[in-house]
Amino acid sequence: MNAIDADGLVSRQRDPANRRIQQVALTGAGEAAVQRMRLAAVAFDQQLGDGLSTSDLAAARRILDRLRDNLDGAQPTHSLNEPAARRRQEIAGRRRGP
Prior knowledge:
The chain is mainly α.
């Protein structure tokens, strides 16, 4: 917040009713920056979808939704450290011998 205030993108004022609260508003420069970001986001979105049909995009959305749904609430079936633990057991077994 301090950085964008220092850059002149926002203005801050204390709330007269409660001085612990700061009211923040975009300045003209802040509005212009938001507009530039909005245009850049739209251009990026268009570039990303270039050459893809509406049905391609719909299929991609369905696949991504399915992947997200598969992960929602999913518990991992193995520990991320399982290969390392298995390797340590193999090494320990070799030290003990047959």
